[in-house]
């Protein structure tokens, strides 16, 4: 075998991502003159520089966030969304409008370097097995010694009984080049782990694998190098693979998926790629093993960590497919960057469906975490002299120095849904997705060159980060099998940003047209509740005493215009009997808070179609318990709510038995609460929060309470909050009372436009043998400290009692 140095230059990444909004529309430059419409021959336009009209651009893709609960005898709960930003400006901005084109999404610059396997490379052109236990190599043979590979040159020690002189500096292998169709195998009969380092580069166009010849399993493998460039594969069934390099470019397949016979516990090995710049354009597979006759394997963990991290390929840490006797789960995938992260590929940690012809549980979804903690180049290279930095570090400094903004970008698909059960098996719960952007402390990902920084040293922080999130997100809970019991809950997504102290950038979620977070339907017991949406912004500082020069108490705002589907699941109760009860599933909860210490920021602009209706109840049961949901917005400054909000109470269609004393109350409509501490409140959404119908007792309509302590209150959309109907023919049935509307401001009652009430509203009591009450709209009169009736059915004033002298 020839051990020659092969010089070649690899173009390691050519990826242009622009992090700028991409608009639609078209343009053309057409100078053609008008000609009469006659059946004559076409007129030839001789105008110079004639151009064809530009074609209409393709619409940008849009997506949905799916986190519905699964169906079952008992439906699963809808999933939860948590969005949080702390800062002095900018906003959480959630938009259904697509602004990012995945094909041209962000400027992720990866150094282009000349790959160099060093002065003494190992060139593998055919299959080669290296026995790492070998302590007596033949001349020219490759052997392992003290963490490195060497090529034995025949040297012997000067001992009385000479032995091979191993580990000499002149014979160390500096790098590896593996040709296409060639396989490099590290073998051992005594070891379970192997860690091997190279001063220069590893070029893998073939296959790297390991084997323990005694146990017929693979070894835990760790490789360290300057550059890893792989168009080939790393095959490690059931065992971990760790890769550490200044620059990692993977275009091949790395798999640690095991099988039921030889896989390690968990079914696959951990995959970890850590470097200054890490880019995966291939496949990383840590999927659990399949088992058609028993429980399958868990997905394992995959970690990409670096100063710059890119994934445009696929990462699979899903569970295996099996006849699962209990719940198994997908794995954990994390992308960790200390300056820039871009995921434009797919990440899958889903739980797979149970085997169809067995009584098997669905797998649970795992966790996907994308973490950015921006570190300035100055900090990343502190106390390192330029001449001590290698070529890759120097180029990273050039690419990301000066005023380049750190960023986190996702246009890829994220899948952590739970699998469906089969037979008597339950569904698997949806997993979680988390984005964390920590700009003021915290730490994720390595520096370019690791050095300690003294406490006295002042380091300029990185500029404010850009956050752009879009792409398909799947977190649905799995449904139970045909004879199973529990549909599983949908998963959760968390987006947390502790923003740079000077940031006015938005936390931007775009191109997601709807959040689907409804509860699953129940076939015998109860439906699942709708999910929970919480959006929260807060000022970075809380008091003037904390401020330094040019710092403010301003806080971020919230701008939200993506539709929300968070209905409660329906149920057809069949487990009823005397003394049995059913919980009606409420619709989801929406809670939005935006706080600022000044008149800047701390606003909410919401314009979405919201469905938070409670689920219906049918079938048989002695009692039905009903509750209500709520839609709540609190802000320091202006609150604007547009679109529509439907939060109707549960309809109950259980018919009481003859001479039964049981009663079934319809569900109460949703409660709406809007508050501004020092701004105006405008509610222009069309609203229906009527109570649910029931044979004996209609549910109450939901109430609306709006407070603007120092501002105006306006309701300009249509409002329906009727009481639910009862069956008039049923003796003693009672219709539900309507809701009420309360408007509250502490400004003088004669302030112009203090209260604007809707021109279209319905606050009618429900029908029944006894009709429900029809109620009214009230406005607070701060001068008299009483609620004044502004519309609807105002209560009759009781005559004052006159006491004769």
How would you explain this protein's 3D organization?
The chain is mostly beta strands. The chain has two helices and 57 strands. Helix content is 2%, strand content 34%. The strands form six sheets. The chain has a 47-stranded mixed sheet that branches. A hairpin with a 2-residue loop joins strand 9 (142-145) and strand 10 (148-151). It is elongated.
Largest beta-sheet details = 47 strands, mixed
Mean pLDDT: 86
Helix content: under 10%
User: Radius of gyration, rounded?
Assistant: 33 Å
SS elements, strand count = 57
SSE-based structural type: mainly beta
Residue windows where pLDDT falls under 50 for at least 5 positions: 1-46, 262-266, 381-388, 442-454
Task: Describe the global form.
Answer: elongated
Give the distance, in angstroms, between the N- and C-terminal Cα atoms: 125 Å
H/I helix tally:
2
Strand content: 25-35%
Brief summary of the model shown:
The protein has 805 residues and is mainly beta. 2% of the residues lie in helices and 34% in strands. The protein has a 47-stranded mixed sheet that branches. The chain has a two-stranded antiparallel sheet with strand order 1-6. The chain has a two-stranded parallel ribbon with strand order 3-35.
Name its key features.
47-stranded mixed sheet; 2% helix; two-stranded antiparallel sheet; 2 helices; single chain; mainly beta
Topology:
Blueprint: E1 8-9, E2 63-66, E3 72-74, E4 80-87, E5 91-95, E6 114-115, E7 122-124, E8 128-131, E9 142-145, E10 148-151, E11 176-178, E12 183-188, E13 193-197, E14 202-204, E15 207-212, E16 220-230, E17 233-235, E18 241-250, E19 253-255, E20 271-280, E21 283-285, E22 301-311, E23 314-316, E24 332-343, E25 346-348, E26 367-372, H1 377-380, H2 391-400, E27 407-410, E28 413-415, E29 432-438, E30 466-469, E31 473-474, E32 492-498, E33 507-509, E34 512-516, E35 522-526, E36 532-539, E37 557-561, E38 563-565, E39 571-573, E40 581-583, E41 589-594, E42 604-611, E43 617-619, E44 623-625, E45 630-635, E46 639-646, E47 671-676, E48 681-683, E49 686-688, E50 704-708, E51 713-715, E52 719-720, E53 741-744, E54 755-756, E55 761-762, E56 776-781, E57 786-792
Parallel strand pairs: 2-31, 2-34, 3-35, 4-32, 4-36, 5-33, 5-37, 7-11, 8-12, 11-14, 12-15, 13-16, 14-16, 15-17, 16-18, 17-19, 18-20, 19-21, 20-22, 21-23, 22-24, 23-25, 24-26, 24-27, 25-28, 26-29, 27-30, 28-31, 29-32, 30-33, 34-38, 36-41, 37-42, 38-42, 39-43, 40-44, 41-45, 42-46, 45-47, 46-48, ...
Antiparallel strand pairs: 1-6, 9-10, 56-57
């Amino acid at each position: 075998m020839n051990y020659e140095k092969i010089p070649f230059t690899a173009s390691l990444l050519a990826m242009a991502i622009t992090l700028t909004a991409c608009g639609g529309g078209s343009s053309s430059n057409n100078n053609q003159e008008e000609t009469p419409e006659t059946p004559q021959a076409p007129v030839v336009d001789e105008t110079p520089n004639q151009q064809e009209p530009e074609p209409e651009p393709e619409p940008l893709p849009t997506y949905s966030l799916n986190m519905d609960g699964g169906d079952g005898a008992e439906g699963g709960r809808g999933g939860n969304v948590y969005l949080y930003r702390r800062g002095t400006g900018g906003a959480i901005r959630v938009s259904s409008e697509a602004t990012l084109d995945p094909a041209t999404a962000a400027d992720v610059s990866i150094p282009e370097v000349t790959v160099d396997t060093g002065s003494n490379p190992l060139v593998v052109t055919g299959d080669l097995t290296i026995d790492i236990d070998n302590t007596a190599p033949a001349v020219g043979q490759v052997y392992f010694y003290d963490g490195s590979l060497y090529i034995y040159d025949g040297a012997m020690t000067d001992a009385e009984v000479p032995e091979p002189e191993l580990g000499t500096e002149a014979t160390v292998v500096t790098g590896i080049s593996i040709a296409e169709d060639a396989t490099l195998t590290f073998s051992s009969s005594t070891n379970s782990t192997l860690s091997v380092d190279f001063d220069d580069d590893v070029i893998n166009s073939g296959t790297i694998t390991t084997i323990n010849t005694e146990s017929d399993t693979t070894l835990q493998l760790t490789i360290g190098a300057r550059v890893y460039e792989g168009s080939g594969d790393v095959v490690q069934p059931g065992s971990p693979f760790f890769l550490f390099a200044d620059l990692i470019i993977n275009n091949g397949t790395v798999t640690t998926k095991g099988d039921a016979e030889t896989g390690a516990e968990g079914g696959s090995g951990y995959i970890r790629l850590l470097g200054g710049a890490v880019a995966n354009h291939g496949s990383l597979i840590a999927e659990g093993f399949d088992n058609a006759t028993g429980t399958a394997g868990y997905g394992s963990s995959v970690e990409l960590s670096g100063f710059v991290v890119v994934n445009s390929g696929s990462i699979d840490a899903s569970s295996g497919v099996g006849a699962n006797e209990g719940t198994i789960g997908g794995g954990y995938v994390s992308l960790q960057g200390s300056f820039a992260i871009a995921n434009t590929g797919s990440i899958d940690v889903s739980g797979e469906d149970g085997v169809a012809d067995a009584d098997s549980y669905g797998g649970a979804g795992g966790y996907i975490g994308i973490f950015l903690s921006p570190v300035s180049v100055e900090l990343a290279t502190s106390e390192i002299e330029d001449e001590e930095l290698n070529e890759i570090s120097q180029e990273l400094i050039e690419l990301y120095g000066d005023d380049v903004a750190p960023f986190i970008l996702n246009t890829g698909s994220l899948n952590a849904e739970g699998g469906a059960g089969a037979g008597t098996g339950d569904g698997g719960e949806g997993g979680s997705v988390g984005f964390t952007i920590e700009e003021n402390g915290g730490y994720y990902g390595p520096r370019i060159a690791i050095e300690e920084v003294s406490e006295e040293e002042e380091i300029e922080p990185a500029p404010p980060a850009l956050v752009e999130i879009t792409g398909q997100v799947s977190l649905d809970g799995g449904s139970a099998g045909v004879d199973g019991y529990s549909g599983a809950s949908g998963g959760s997504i968390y987006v947390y940003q502790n923003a740079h102290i000077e940031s006015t950038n938005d936390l931007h979620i775009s191109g997601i047209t709807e959040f689907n977070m409804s509860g699953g339907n129940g076939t015998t017991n109860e439906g699942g509740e709708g999910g929970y949406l919480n959006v929260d912004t807060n000022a970075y500082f809380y008091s003037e005493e904390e401020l330094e020069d040019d710092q403010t108490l301003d806080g971020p705002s919230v701008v939200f215009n993506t539709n929300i589907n968070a209905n409660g699941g329906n149920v057809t109760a069949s487990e009823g009997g005397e003394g049995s009860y059913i919980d009606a599933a409420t619709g989801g909860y929406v809670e939005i808070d935006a706080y600022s210490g000044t008149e800047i920021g701390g606003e909410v602009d919401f314009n979405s179609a919201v469905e938070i209706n409670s689920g219906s109840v049918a079938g048989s049961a002695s009692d039905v318990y009903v509750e209500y949901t709520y839609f709540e917005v609190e802000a320091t400054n202006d609150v604007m709510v547009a679109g529509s909000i439907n939060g109707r109470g549960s309809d109950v269609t259980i018919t009481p038995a003859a001479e039964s004393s049981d009663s079934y109350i319809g569900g109460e409509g949703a409660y709406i609460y809007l508050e501004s501490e020092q701004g105006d409140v405008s509610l222009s959404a069309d609203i229906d929060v009527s109570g649910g119908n029931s044979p004996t007792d209609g549910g109450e309509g939901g109430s609306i309470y709006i407070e603007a302590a120092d501002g105006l209150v306006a309701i300009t959309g249509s409002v329906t909050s009727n009481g639910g109907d009862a069956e008039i023919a049923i003796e003693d049935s009672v219709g539900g009372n309507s809701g009420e509307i309360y408007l509250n401001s502490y400004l003088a009652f004669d302030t112009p436009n203090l209260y604007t009430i809707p021109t279209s509203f319905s606050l009618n009591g429900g029908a029944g043998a006894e009709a429900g009450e029809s109620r009214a709209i009230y406005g607070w009169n701060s001068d008299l400290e009483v609620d004044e009736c502004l519309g609807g059915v105002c209560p009759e004033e009781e005559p004052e009692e006159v006491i004769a002298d």
